[in-house]
Amino acid sequence: MPNKHGDFIWYELITSDAGAAQTFYGPLLGWDFKDSGTPGMDYRIFSSAISEVGGIMALTPEMKDGGARPFWVGYIAVDDVDAAAAKMKAAGAAKHMEPWDIPGVGRIAFMADPQGAMFYIMKPLSAPDSPDAASQSFAATEPSEGHCAWNELNSSDPEAAKAFYGDLFGWQKEGEMDMGPMGKYEFLKVGDDRGFMLGAVMPKPPQMPFSAWIYYFRVADIDKAAQQIMAGGGSMIQEPVEIPGGEFSLVARDPQGAGFGLVGMRK
């Protein structure tokens, strides 16, 4: 089934050292890498045993001059990039990069929601030999190692964020968890008959300097992954903690400083 408007379809690491990032994430998540073949750009596509998951892009001099630091960003499918970008801007979002076409790939725009959390919107081109193929980057219904398992928005204004994304993509709240002084952890699902959970929104922790999405990738053994993070030069933001369903999650930074999450079982 093709992806629908509002689905996460790709994940991208924008980093200061693409080679070092490949060395760090490859063993951690079982990813294989290949060059995208994009002229004049170091863009590396990473894949699981099942499918492509995302890409690694080196920060350009212009990005560095603008103060950009390594970070992860997700791509959300839309039916019409220009119309969606205009609607988002009218709702208080910022367009960091106006809509543009990537030959053979699709049309995209780089946005930030009204609280500052950044993401891409994209209308991908269908492959001629498989027009109904869907992205499996986000494993929405079946757990898949090396794929994103959860999309978490840390926002300075969760209520406004829910209204913004709900209006744009039809996402709906599906329950919540009380985190005490940290506020409510509110679960989000797609708003159509597929009914799968896509992630959650929560208040931005005081130590987080700005609103941001955190993407959690699935591993087979959370404790082994935590050890690999530290051995590979990364650092831990949140040690593994148990989450509903009996799995464990952690939040970390890679050696270049980009934040990410992992989810998996404890063995």
From TrEMBL:
Which superkingdom heads the taxonomic lineage of this protein's source? Bacteria
Q: Where is the VOC domain?
A: 7-124, 144-265
Q: Which CDD domains match?
A: SgaA_N_like
Which PROSITE patterns does the UniProt entry name for this protein? Answer: VOC
InterPro entries, A to Z: Anthracycline_SecMetBiosynth (IPR052164), Glyas_Bleomycin-R_OHBP_Dase (IPR029068), Glyas_Fos-R_dOase_dom (IPR004360), VOC_core (IPR037523)
Q: What is this protein called?
A: VOC family protein
- Extract the Pfam families matched here: Glyoxalase (PF00903)
Gene3D superfamilies per UniProt: 2,3-Dihydroxybiphenyl 1,2-Dioxygenase, domain 1
